[in-house]
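Curious: can you check?
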Amino acid sequence: MLSTIQSNIIEPYMVLRQTLGPLKLSRWQLTKIMAKAMLFGSVLRSIFVASVIAFAFYLLWYSVFGEKHTEKILDLPVFKTNASHCDDIIKEGQKKYPNDPFVVVNKRFSFVVYPATVWDELKRIPEHTASVAGYMHHCNSGDWSLVGNETQELWKTMNVDLTRALPAHLGNLQEDIALAFDTVVGRSTKPHEKWHMFTTVGLMGRLNATSFAGRDLGFRAAWYWSVTLAPVFAHFANTLLKMLPDFLKPLARPIFYAPVLLDHQFMRQMLYPIIDKNTKEFREAKDPKEPMAPKPGKNLPFTAFLLARYKDGAATPHQLSTDIIQASYTSIPSTSTSLYHALWNLAQRPEAQEILRKEVEEVMIDGKLPSTHLQELKRMDSFLRESLRLHPITHFALQRRVNKPLKLSIGPELPVGTLIVLDAQAINRSPELYDNPNEFDMDRFWRLRQIPGNDGKYHAVTANATAPIWGDGAQACPGRYYGVCVLKISLAHVLMNYDIELKGGPRPLKPIPVPNGTFGPDPSVKMIWKYKGKNPSPA
């Protein structure tokens, strides 16, 4: 290769430069002459021709096997927008076709939007036919971001093992949340402003890291920045890809996503020593259940949960690190946005702060929350569910990507790759389900639970057709119990230790819709914090 460069580029350049020197050509003229010489040299000409042929074959492959746009395949009404989101055209589609499916298309995706009448039918469809993980993988460039790569072992760990461990781990979570608040918000008794979005991301980024990666790594700055910047890197990659024509995107993805891949590798290098240590302890334990028991002052045995789920040989350091990155990466946007909205609703309702503060005081034992799933906090539970209802983290519900040709009771047969959604906002704000559906009523679900026979219903973790945020059925969000528990502990810590208010007073919430159907928080909001707990920091 070096000899080819020497003989075909460097030597001709030197000869031409010496030969043409007396002509006093400009650099541009000399460059054109050099380009012609290189282009029509035998070796470089062959490379050029081969590249053209390869690109032609790529275009042919893309035309046959490349991604097809749903609106060009299905015989359904189509509503398009030049915006990155599709909130407005969904409303338009529902007005015209309230009982039938239709297609909405934004700058990045095509979605088939079904009416809520197919809820029970869609939730029962097995994962191998239509998958929420496949939807997340597709909409978040999962081959590069790892989103949607959940194994069944990780899914069961989140849904079963993590949920069971919460009561025993609650004391540790309270300590971790207190440390996160000390780090991010501080203990100043003087009112001070904080950008609200960065505050909640900072809190949940550190807390979730302690649960999945361990306390030592969770509060290490390198890990925190790596795991919180991963979605940012992916967002910029998607933004750059959006500017290219479709046929060039597969070629550009490896380049644009290089920072994401490097970030993942950096996280793996930090995780490997911890995984090796935890794996050794798990393998050497005399009682296999002992490493899986949460202990006061110790890390949540998340790695042990995973090891117990995988068959021999499958739990490699690479797979375990992928699972931990996956759990950390996907939990931060959902919990931080939910906390953002909950604190936003709390800050402009002083009367709600007082009611919830008294409820927290009533259930505390020696200044600590009880070691339960915190179902005792019924009014806080209602407050959270109302916050999630009015300000959800996603516009859609029961999101699925079709893995096998599928036909529901209404609409045409859907080909593989189709993205199916239901409009969660239409359910959340339905006047048929709720009185004054556009108003925030913190006791809405608390009152419903007072009706005999309803105490087991209307919880913040409930997943059904009236609570669309978590999905439903076998593919409902596996981490919802952990997420709601973390939100309750965070709110309790705020209520007992801080006074908060929105800078500028109450205002309408302006969430930022994202192309994949989720909502991002408004980055312009500032919160005013004032510490009132024990051991304040020096003024």
The CA atoms of residues 382 and 445 lie 5 Å apart. The chain has two domains: 2-52, 143-531.
